[in-house]
Amino acid sequence: MEKRLITLCKRRTGLVATAGVLGGVLAVTALGGTSNAAPSDDDAGNRPKPQAQAQEAAPAPEASDARMEITPGPGSHNIGTNGPVGVTVRNGKLTKVTMTAVATGAEIPGTLSADGTSWKANGRLERATKYQIAAEAEDAEGRSATANATITTVSPANDFIGHLSPEDGSTVGVGMPVTVSFDKAIGDKAAVQSEIQVSSSSGQQVVGHWFNDHRLDFRPESYWKPGSTVTVTLTRNGIRKTVTFKIGRSQISTVDTKTKQMTVVRDGKTIKTIPVSSGSPEHPTYNGQMVISEKFRQVHMNGASVGLTEKDGKPSYDIKAVPHAMRLTDSGTFIHGNYWGNSVFGKVNTSHGCVGLKDVRGGGDGRQPAAWFFDNSMTGDVVIVKNSEDKTTLAPGNGLSDWNMPWSEWVAGSPTT
């Protein structure tokens, strides 16, 4: 069961970009989803400001003195298969550390030191694999703390440098764009893009768009055709790498914040209508087309991570196990289970930006609406929010929100068209 601390974010969508100059080769590691913040097109170089995610404030415990560090740091790419990967803690002791492969859920064994202040992963890691590390610790007063990181190991095709999603052989929803992220800034975008070809068995025209110097996405004018196969071919200095993935059934879920209902449409037919609670008037949910990029059985949401604290410095809320959480934007919007607001669904919007569905603590009841939606959704599925009081524009580069950009503007962002 996955569990990680979520950095909750407000409405700014400009995301940090890494400076640098592209080396002589293009490399791609095939990945699924986008767990770390991707660069945005409209405010590059700035982190998004926090958007709180809790639907209603849970009782806030005392802040822990324990301070953890995960090596390598969150979002690290091209990690060697021999590591080192580890966790250390100051002013406390580690109580639990798990490291799992995102695609398979396989857990990586590790060793905890005798004094409880460090943990180290054992053995070799797999190449071109995305891992999640979740650590928990307690200070001398028994107050808990958590730390999380997502890292990716080096690609077996060392003649390519970069990161590609979705992963080779995966099946995704109709809204999943092809995303190529570069660790170093790309100067000659036309030259690099000319070496990346994306096609669909549906015959749809596919065009690339640069959000900034570090991110290149590909998509057709409208959602991918269900059942089609997308092929990505990358060529550099005579070396070719091919990645293919399949488009599954079409599932488009529309959240109407006025009626407080979500309508789930699969292959053109409504299969479920679910009462929801979205952002309050003070913290409205984004309007627009969003795409599920990650799924977590449980996540830890803490107000202090976004500066939401009480006068005494305690976090405004600290919910350790928010069930059935699915990421919609890099700036922190999720659609998730809510077990603490039993009377709000379909009646009142109470959250700080997320969309909440009725659930139970621990998420163990498969009959609950949140469990049903989680089990019947895949990465790449589309979630549309309408009638929100939010007046800002959801940036297409905030998560996988590419579909909010008009086609003419999308094509204009491609130097090869």
From TrEMBL:
One of its GO terms (biological process) is regulation of cell shape. Residues 251-386 form the L,D-TPase catalytic domain. Pfam families: Big_10, YkuD. Pathway: Cell wall biogenesis; peptidoglycan biosynthesis; Glycan biosynthesis. PANTHER family: L,D-TRANSPEPTIDASE (PTHR30582), L,D-TRANSPEPTIDASE YCIB-RELATED (PTHR30582:SF2). One of its GO terms (molecular function) is acyltransferase activity. Gene3D superfamilies: 2.60.40.3710, 2.60.40.3780, L,D-transpeptidase catalytic domain-like. Residues 50-63 have a biased composition (Low complexity). Keywords: Acyltransferase, Cell membrane, Cell shape, Cell wall biogenesis/degradation, Lipoprotein, Membrane, Palmitate, Peptidoglycan synthesis, Signal, Transferase. GO terms for cellular component: extracellular region. CDD domains: LDT_IgD_like_2, YkuD_like. This is L,D-transpeptidase family protein. Residues 1-37 form the signal peptide. Residues 34-85 are annotated as: Disordered. The active site is at residues 336, 354. It comes from the Bacteria.
